[in-house]
């Protein structure tokens, strides 16, 4: 006989204390990574800030916003209609190199997973930092030869770098965060704001299938602010240091990637030491 005094099952709304963090609520991204809520937020903010700095500083270097693929495609279409085929091809090539950079970064991450490395994301950041240093070094040398402007090849390299930069956080967050352009960010933020405004209307019922995600909205607003701050820093940095501004940006990327890469290095060194000790013990 069933217990008539058994407690009813708790309502889903009552179990919020045991709900997953906000960055796992909508999508199960990061569920394989040991990263806290605060660290994830900080990483997203820093990557968005770096994206804004590279994008804004790169505009003064190559006279293009290299992360704005939508604008480049519209520009290519406009130039094609006007018969300016060279400009149209350059804009189209920028999009192609952005794709190649994204594919390169994703390949590095997949390669690391295949070889059971946990530092694929950090290693991709390191490669991006190396390419950014190359961009800065070439820019500092070549800019004087071209009256302060860089050739098309440098612009394509920067598009490649921006594709890599956007891919790291996109893969790490399961597509929830884009660190080089804010169109998707402001769209998602607008969706969350609409839910909040709907809930605050007293004449509307609270539909059970609509849930406001305030932590997500705060994250999106923070990403937008970080990208804007990074743009200001990038513009100031380029006008203050020129192409040498790529150096501090690269250093930050190296620091961000050093945690995961360092973990792999320590683990491999530890395994080698254990194997040597085992071989030494067997040789006795």
Automatic annotation (TrEMBL):
InterPro entries: DUF1275
Biased composition (Basic residues): 8-19
Transmembrane segments: 42-65, 85-111, 123-143, 149-172, 219-238, 244-265
Keywords noted in UniProt: Membrane, Transmembrane, Transmembrane helix
Superkingdom of this protein's organism: Bacteria
Region (Disordered): 1-21
Name listed for the protein in its UniProt record: DUF1275 family protein
Species assigned in the record: Neisseria dentiae
Higher taxonomy: Bacteria, Pseudomonadati, Pseudomonadota, Betaproteobacteria, Neisseriales
